[in-house]
Automatic annotation (TrEMBL):
Molecular function in Gene Ontology: aldehyde dehydrogenase (NAD+) activity
Pfam families recorded: Epimerase
Source organism (scientific name): Paracidobacterium acidisoli
InterPro entries the record matches: Epimerase_deHydtase, NAD(P)-bd_dom_sf, NAD(P)-dependent_oxidoreduct
GO cellular component: cytoplasm
Domain NAD-dependent epimerase/dehydratase: 3-212
SUPFAM superfamilies: NAD(P)-binding Rossmann-fold domains
Name of this chain's protein: NAD(P)-dependent oxidoreductase
Leader peptide range in chain numbering: none
Amino acid sequence: MTILVTGGTGLVGSRLLRRFADAGVDCRALVRPGKDVPAGATPVEGDLLHADSLKQAVEGVSAIVHLAAVFRTQNEDDIWRANLDGTKNLIAAAKAHAPQARFVMASTGLVYDADASHPGREEDATHPKLAYPASKIAAEKELRNSGLNWSILRLGFVYGDGDGHLAAVPALATRFKWHPARTFSLVHQRDVARVVELALTGVMDGRIVNICDDAPTTLYEMASLVGSPVEPSAEPLTNPWMGRMDGSRLRGLGFQLTVPTVYQAVQQGIL
Ligand SMILES: NC(=O)c1ccc[n+]([C@@H]2O[C@H](COP(=O)([O-])OP(=O)(O)OC[C@H]3O[C@@H](n4cnc5c(N)ncnc54)[C@H](OP(=O)(O)O)[C@@H]3O)[C@@H](O)[C@H]2O)c1
């Protein structure tokens, strides 16, 4: 069984590939020209934006784990191009050259509405305004209507294994003026990899699944954990549900977290 991973040079993909290599899984990684080859995978040069480059990446694979995306930029055109057009190209390549392959796509918990009245659930109607979540919802729709064997993982804020992601939060908070009580559903890299493994068994086929741990955490707490406290605020948070995801569907599939809270990650030294 060969698995194609896109986004293998990214925060999530590089850690996933290392874990899969340690477990003896045969992985290919789609790598853009000039980029470093991720450890633990056979590189296949290609670019989501160049449809013709994807045939050799998908041919012969039994599963595709599509992590590649653009979202750490203010350039909305780049975001839409990579996340929607790039995903469309990958879907077309899979339909043409690997129609039996299981197609697992990473999406985001940011798709849920800011005025939600409960933690975001997979069946909620969503109306994201920002380019990143809107492009992910559009890509989700393409995949759901593709006729492929799909599953969609809506990831919470991923952190851990030295990825530096949590440490970036205080600067983001200052830049975007986030309220210190703004809450994030989190998930450790270790559990993301285990969820992808589970998705590859087929139990998530045809489903959207929220991927998050047991303890939504405030920005204030996250910043304190990485040693860069943010200013407290006496102003109430507009909507305390914003940013929270409901993880019960994942639990219902039998998944057990190995890192249920960020505090456990701190104790174990795996931030
Ligand atoms: N990290 C999180 O907290 C988080 C939370 C929710 C959802 N997610 C989702 O999880 C996935 C992985 O996130 P991440 O944090 O690992 O992202 P990341 O660190 O920004 O990595 C993005 C990856 O996408 C690749 N990529 C971008 N455009 C491409 C293109 N045109 N062709 C081929 N590859 C391309 C990049 O390759 P280059 O090295 O060539 O640029 C890189 O490997 C994304 O789908 C994201 O939406 C992440």
